[in-house]
Description:
InterPro entries: aa-tRNA-synth_I_cd-bd, aa-tRNA-synth_I_codon-bd_sub2, aa-tRNA-synth_I_CS, aa_tRNA-synth_I_cd-bd_sf, Glu-tRNA-ligase_bac/mito, Glu-tRNA-synth_I_codon-bd_sub1, Glu/Gln-tRNA-synth, Glu/Gln-tRNA-synth_Ib_cat-dom. The protein is mainly alpha-helical. The protein has three domains: 256 residues, HUPs (Rossmann fold, 3-Layer(aba) Sandwich), CATH 3.40.50; 50 residues, Helicase, Ruva Protein, domain 3 (Orthogonal Bundle); 84 residues, Arc Repressor Mutant, subunit A (Orthogonal Bundle), CATH 1.10.10.350.
Amino acid sequence: MTQEKVRxxxxxxxTGFIHLGNIRxxxxxxxxxRANRGDFILRIEDxxxxxxxxxxxxxxxxxxxxLRLDHDEGPFFQMxxxxxxxxxxxxxxxxxxxxxxxxxxxxxxxxxxxxxxxxEKPRYDGTWxxxxxxxxxxxxxxxxxxxxxxxxxxxVVGWDxxxxxxxxxQNSELDDLVIARPDGTPTYNFCVCVDDMDxxxxxxxxxxxxxxxxxxxxxxxxxxxxxxxxFAHLPTVLNEQGEKMSKRNGAKAxxxxxxxxxxxxxxxxxxARLGWSHGDDEIFxxxxxxxxxxxxxxxxxxxxxxxxxxxxxxxxxxxxMDDAELAALIKPFVVAAGVDESRIDADDxxxxxxxxxxxxCDTLVDLAGWAKLFYMDGIERNAEDYAKHVTxxxxxxxxxxxxxxxxxxxxxDAIGAAIKQVLKEQGVKMPQLAMPVRVLTLGTxxxxxVDAVLELLGREKVLKSLKST
Length: 469
């Protein structure tokens, strides 16, 4: 028997920018599809016309492209599928699974108030539900009805959730869901089911805020004669204060992390560990994540975002990167920092600068901050470091060093030998020379090895810096 091809989906609403909590709900279905050689579908649930915006759609697509969460089909837009929803709605109505309800909002509110006063759960009471032998109220004139789905009155509805384990609801706790508004437009829970049926979705991997929708959707799938997908409801992602991550609670758009110099593979690595694990592995490649990913190791407790941990993960990925690849990524940041692109393209130094400084940087922005110093005519020096190291005592030492730098062969080994020779002649130790040289050439006392830094700066720039005390 041929195994059914895995098909997953990410179905965001474009009602605000997409943050890390949202994008994790894209990462897992994407990884599951890739791990099983399946298909990953992007669907935009844009039926909330008042709040949906094109700008939000753009950020969703841009964020996914940056993280390289490529989709095989889509993006599909629900508003473009309205004719299909109405067609399926008519089929359900014809088979008696849906009925018109003429209860007004005022009547519904009054019913709920009465139920709450009696300490009952507020719910629709089935006034307009047709049953054998039941006489329905007279249809009021000029009122357009909503359409309600006939939920089974008895029994249970349940599923084996791949993240939370077995979940059950009593059907008696579920009232008859409105699946079309008075103007005929279908509602969220119905549209989702038609989409998942038409798109042959086999696994629905989404946030646990959808758990209460699931029993209703299972009933709709069954009424449609569609196969019910496998469900996995992911725990919430919390912000650093322990609140649910949201725009209101200070969450940033996914694309902002791109602009702050994070690597897409590092972000995928970090997000993967916010609700899934592979033993004690903390740092892994995108391919390893795909190879290892399954639904058996999803966490059941909420993951908490930690920006310091994200920076650490990003730093580890930067260290592992090829220098030339890293140079290509930092180049736009160096240009954005004010360096003319033609200066960068004039030689091959950027690759070597990236290799020299990557071990001490957390982000591409940090690394670009170092790199720009090698191309700028003037640099800003740390005042505290300058006062501490560029002293009167250092002046003759720096003068001797500048003289040596005027004639030395310009490569790292020769510069290193010249430094040792000056130290020997002046009778001083390395820090007494290296610290003021660092401050004068790069503006800070804390840099990688002086000989490597000086080689990359170039003789002219070094001599100019040494003489600008």
